[in-house]
Every structure is written in structure tokens, then in C-alpha cells.
Amino acid sequence: MMKKISIEEELEILKSNVVEIIPEDGLYEKLKKAREEGRPLRVKLGADPSAPDLHLGHAVVLRKLKQFQDLGHQVVFIIGDFTARIGDPSGRSETRKPLTPEQVKKNALTYQEQVGKILDVSKAEIRYQEEWFGKMKLEDVLVLTSKYTIARMLERDDFAQRFKEQKPIFIHEIMYPLLQAYDSVAIKADIELGGTDQKFNLIVGREIQREYGLEPQVAMLMPILEGLDGKQKMSKSLGNYIGLTEPPNQMYGKVMSIPDELIIRYFELATELPKEEIRKIEQEMREGKLNPRDAKARLAREIVKIYHGEEASLKAEEEFNRIFRNKELPENVPEVEISEPKIWIVKLLTQVGAAKSNSEAKRLISQGAVEIDGTRIEDINLDISIDKPFILRVGKHFFRRIKRA
């Protein structure tokens, strides 16, 4: 049963932080019709399991989906096990490398658990594209492709730019928006959520639904959350992300590393604080009554609390302060034994897991991110003696106690 509130109150909740609704009055009309018919709206969000981890950028849209769920609507989370094999061309200047079915399946297995950190999965529909695309015949595919023109597809900004620059656009990439659109046909979506970079795909969904005799869905576009660098959108491939399943200490530390100018935006898009409270924090920072570092600490607590609970958020703050404010070591520093009497610093970083490759290890050293017992290491050719134990620190959060085996 839906909560007994007016449509106007429901609209106010659902429109918060939304960048655009297409058509503008569509959400009101859908809510009104659903009440007249005595049924919940079917609200769709799709995610391609192109990486094993969901992050706070995904959570912006997932939290909007949760608002629909809390209001009694039926949320449908689609795991794009077919579209992930293509790769969403949105905003891409070149073709994505396709994932294998094995990679997709491995990543998809983690998604339901991660989504459960925000949604009540017992009440949600978790669907895989395999349900409908796995049964499609070539004839069905040809019917789908007949519903949209190449000219319309080339209106899309990234395709248009690549066409202009004579860069390849492959047929399978053109299929991506059609497959995402057909998801809306398959589950009979009333609403589809997505980031602003998904606008073209969501509009195609409306048109394809109409072609299959369904009432077009309403597209609701959410803002894109910037990553830790404060410049590009949060992305695992860019390394500027905060994963939903990251340990509390790591999550807290990453939030503390964001630029000050992102504090309020993160409060708005990544926490559950009321707008009035956020405006108060913003005003106090502007007037110099609140230090940005203290505001950021509050932000880090709020975010960790959502995904790990209040006790874990307080412990993460204590640990952060012990390391960075009091210049102490973490409580439990993992110990690694090295068999050689001496080891190349680059090899040491890869061997203990601080870097995935020699080139990454060299980059970390050149950036001044590597310390041994508090002394910065700047020479990538340095051999380290293991005659006595020492503390290796890489970046802000990686500590290892190194000793001879």
C-alpha cells in the first residue's frame, strides 16, 4: 500500500535533486493515473555489471529509486548482462572493449548484495536481461532495429562527433540504446531513472515503448556525482571513486580527501541529511563559523553510517584522527615477511599489494606517496635492506609492517 500522502507531497519528495523530467508534467500524470487505477508505478533502473563494484555515483540514482520504493511503488533493478557485453557508448569518443560473458557474470553476482545496501531487495524486482534477450530470435532483433533510424541515432552527441571526426561507429554500439530501450518494453516501465549522461538512451526508451504499443515511460535524470578529484565523474576506471562495499576506514578516509568545494554537493547527493541542515552547514562555512575540515568530518560520518552503521562510522573517525591528526599508526597494521635480504623498492610495492604493476609503483614513488618509517622515498632505483622491521606507507591509507622472513 502507498503511504497516505497527497500527490503534491509525493511530487515534492520525488523531484528533489532531479535535474530534468521528460516530459515536464509526466511524473504528476503518472502518479495521478496510478492512484486512479489503484496500482503502484513500475520504476526502472538499469546497471551494467562492467565492474565488480558499485560506488557513490551509482548510489545517487539508487537512493532516488529507494524514495519510490518507500512511497509504495514497485522498483525494478535491471542487471544489464547483455548490454555490458557491448559497453555503453554514452560520452565515449572511441569504442569500448567488450567484456566476456564470464567477466559479466562474475561482476553481476556482486550487484544484488550491493544494491541491498540501499534498496529493500525483498520488495524489489531484480531482473536480468537474459530473461528476454536470451529468448530472442533473429526475427525479433530485426523487428526491434526497424523501430529506429540511423539518422535519429546519429543525432546523439557522441555518435555525431565521432562521425564528424571519421572515427569508427560499430553496429553493435548503435544497438546499445535499442537494447536498453527494449528493457523498458519487457518490464512495462512507467518511469526510468538515469544520470544526465543517459538522456538519449531514456528518450529512445520512450519512443520504442510507443512503437510496441505501450504508454511511454517518464524519464527522470539525476545529477552526475564528481569523483574524488573534483573534476571528472566518479568512475572506477578513473580511480576516483568510493565503493559501496569499501571498509569503513577506507570510505571515511576517501571522503576526507575530497576538495572543499564538493562538500555541500556530497551532502546533497550522498547523505540523508534534511535540506535545512545542509543549508545551515553551507551558511556556517560561508560565514567562517564552521571549518571545512569539520564539515567534511561530519560528511564522512554520515556516509559511512549509511553503509556500515553509526558505530562503524565513529570508529572510522577515531582511526582517521589517530593516524592523521595525532600522527599515530593504525591499530592493526598487516605484517608482510620478505625472504630476500634486500629488495627493489618497486618490487616491494607490487609484492605487498600497494601497486598492481611496476609502472604504477614508479608513479607512486615519483608522486611522493611512498614512505618508510616516515621518510619519503624518491629514488625508483633504490634497494631496501630488510635487516630490521620497518613501516611502509603508501598514500594516505596503505600501511604494512615489513620484516625479514
TrEMBL record:
One of its GO terms (molecular function) is RNA binding. Residues 329-387 form the Tyrosine--tRNA ligase SYY-like C-terminal domain. One of its GO terms (biological process) is tyrosyl-tRNA aminoacylation. A motif ('KMSKS' region) lies at residues 233-237. One of its GO terms (cellular component) is cytosol. Keywords: Aminoacyl-tRNA synthetase, ATP-binding, Cytoplasm, Ligase, Nucleotide-binding, Protein biosynthesis, RNA-binding. InterPro entries: aa-tRNA-synth_I_CS (IPR001412), aa-tRNA-synth_Ic (IPR002305), Rossmann-like_a/b/a_fold (IPR014729), S4_RNA-bd_sf (IPR036986), SYY-like_C (IPR054608), Tyr-tRNA-ligase (IPR002307), Tyr-tRNA-ligase_bac-type (IPR024088), Tyr-tRNA-ligase_bac_2 (IPR024108). Catalyzes the attachment of tyrosine to tRNA(Tyr) in a two-step reaction: tyrosine is first activated by ATP to form Tyr-AMP and then transferred to the acceptor end of tRNA(Tyr). This is Tyrosine--tRNA ligase.
